[in-house]
Amino acid sequence: MDKNTVLGFVLIGAILIGFSVYNSKSYKEQVKERAKADSLARIEALKNMPADSSSSSEIIVSSGDSTSNNKSDAKIPEAIYKDSLLTAASTGKAETYTLENNKIRIAFTSKGAQFQSVLVKKYKTYDSLALHMVKKDLSNLDFSFFTNQLLNTSDFNFSLLNKTDTSLVFSLPFSGSAHMDIEYILPENSYMASCNVRMIGMKDLIGRSRTRMDIKWDLTIPRFEKGYDNEKNYSSVDYKYPNEKSVENIGRRKAEAQESIPTKIRWFAFQQQFFSAIMVSENNFNGGDLAYKFIPEEDPSGNLMSCSANMSVNFVYSDDINIPFSFYFGPNKFRTLKSYKKGFEKIVPLGGWLIGWINRVVIINCFDFLSRFIKNYGIIILIMTILLKLVISPFTFKSYLSTAKMKVLKPEIDKINAKYPKKEDAMKKQQATMDLYKKTGVNMFGGCLPMLFQFPILYAMFRFFPASFELRQQGFLWAHDLSAYDSIFHLPFRIPLYGDHVSLFALLMAVSMYFYSRINLQQMSSGQQMAGMKSMQLYFMPLFMLVLCNNFSSGLSYYYMLSNFITILQTLVIQKFFVNEEKLSAQLKAKAAKAKPKSKSRWQKKLEEMQRQQEAMRKNR
After folding, report:
1. Is 140 helix (H, G, I), strand (E, B) or coil?
2. Which of 114, 266, 471, 487 has a CB 3.0–4.6 Å from the CB of 501, allowing a cystine?
3. How would DSSP label each residue in 456-469?
4. pLDDT computed for residue 54 by the predictor
């Protein structure tokens, strides 16, 4: 082979090698350009999710040279999810959309397709600010489920699929035309919005064994009312079991509380004193954890409590999965809550079966009836107090009459005590006293039983006024809000249990209680036992109620004050016009003189037998 032939083969080889290198470089450039084009196409498909240049999860795609400064290079998300569409959605820019009716206005964020803020219309905070049940950045609602990895909806930016005047549909796309939609519907004239979580075409992604979705909702509720302690005492987290009438709460009047619920529940409520955020699962929650923690009064944020719920629901495995929920954002007004027919009204703390029945059937109906004609709630409380006093006036009269009879018989009782001064004659003294009462027809418990009848009403009012939404921000005389304490003077210091202010209604209530107790003591017969109770009834109880009610609802103190003054007036009227002690004494003596011996009852026979045994034992000693 000559020299020219060798040179020709070398040149041919160099040309082939150079062409191969050139083709390889061109192929790599084409693959890279195609990858960039595909990534840009995915991002463009999500019109509401443009790439965020400030996101730390993005990288720059270049030609392979680390020193390249090609300005046409595109930014694409780092592949932190197995589905590239989810990776793109995880860095999308959040948009805000609004649904509104005449009751509430809800702002939604596309980040997690959830509530951003909820404004309850027609109501204000005590400081006359707009009342936001949900504030921006104080709520996070997260739906979690498994595909080929754990996904949390709050990590993704959803696109807006559809919007009408009453509904919004957010969508999160997956590869292969599968998508997850979250639909919100807000009807007219309603505090409740429905929510449908749909997973369409995701049957193969989810798998047959993963038919559970977890729900986590964290919500911080702001302060809305005047008195921190009162607002705190009537706020909690409640929940309801399916097919049960009653409602449970995880605790009241605690700084914080939590509870694990192992069985199904229908709904749970983050309950402030007068407003609530309630989440309902139409197919029931499987159970979970509920918790709250109160934020200190001095905290500058102005928030009341942090609430959290960790729940789960099951769904039917199919190619079109729908999981329905509902959300209530509104007032804890008994009639309003009851209108939704889900047992929401049970969160209003009106008391147990008897006290609750008095409030629901008597007090609330009376209150609602009077409010149709009278707009001043101070006048309504006055009229309602008078009506209640008229209803129980027969019992008041009977109680006074029984007390008057006991007072008239006091001289005869003193004679019996003088006749049997020794301790060993206690049985004889008791027997003689019982015979006297029997002859005169006096029931020694007659004055107590009618008073016991009034205690449920008094306690019902104690539960009703602080929880009555109707009294919220209703002023009367010097009180600006009958649902909170009134204050005529602010103290420069705080007295333990009493507070840092002076409530005039509480002070007047204590004064009325003192005079009421004084009149009662005058009507009762004196004695050693009465002397022991006098200081407690006359001084301690008014002072105790003054301290107790200083921070309570001024409407409650106002009611107790009215009740005491009306009872004093009733007593004076009965004493002056209906009961004459001289005539009553003559009637009892005449009745005792005419009384015929009656057969002894079993109790009297047993008492006499015990007396004889006691006497025999004394003689034996």
Report:
1. strand
2. 487
3. HHHHHHHHHHHH-G
4. 33
